[in-house]
């Protein structure tokens, strides 16, 4: 089986020009040609293209990708192992970023009167100010933002630690339900989702079921939130969203 350059571009979601460039520099030379001289790619070529795109997604320059793939001492399993390690590290970085976004979105950055040492103690290596501008731009004119500012302005280090611990407990229990095989629409999962909604309402701003559903959708739509939740348990972002939606439907009936 062989494929045209147009077919391969469609499979891989790259441009034909990109494939031509990879051929020109010797990074991905198609294994065959048609009678008319057109490029034809084999399954082995597609495997190599997948490896190239993995490394490119991780930020490797083309020259380094070529050196990695053409290393005569490396076998395919070694490439997969290396990519798994790199992707795992990237997911962890995104998870930390998502945690910082969640701190910011729920107004943890609003009026926090902590010393630098206390901030690090509370938030770890996540910078709670990193996404403050994004939060302010997206939600700064909302009542929820203003309400959260007012509530959190007086929070102490101990308050933040207590809130973090409560949130972590909610996440752990939802992850345990996912691992147990309980459906997202089960009573147990909906109960944890309701506790999550009340936690936001108690701690930051009034969070009705409609707003809570919007948050659940964001956990799936924003890769930073998805990485954070899936870093706790793979699939947790979608499971959390589905439990939140099911809980909202339950309370609407």
TrEMBL record:
Pfam family, one: MerR_1
Signal sequence interval, chain numbering: none
Keyword list, A-Z: Activator, Coiled coil, DNA-binding, Transcription, Transcription regulation
Gene3D superfamilies documented for this protein: 1.10.1660.10, Antibiotic binding domain of TipA-like multidrug resistance regulators
Parts forming coiled coils: 77-104
InterPro entries hit by this protein: DNA-bd_dom_put_sf (IPR009061), MerR-type_HTH_dom (IPR000551), MerR_fam (IPR047057), TipA-like_antibiotic-bd (IPR036244), TipAS_dom (IPR012925)
UniProt-recorded name of the protein: MerR family transcriptional regulator
Organism this protein belongs to: Streptomyces anandii
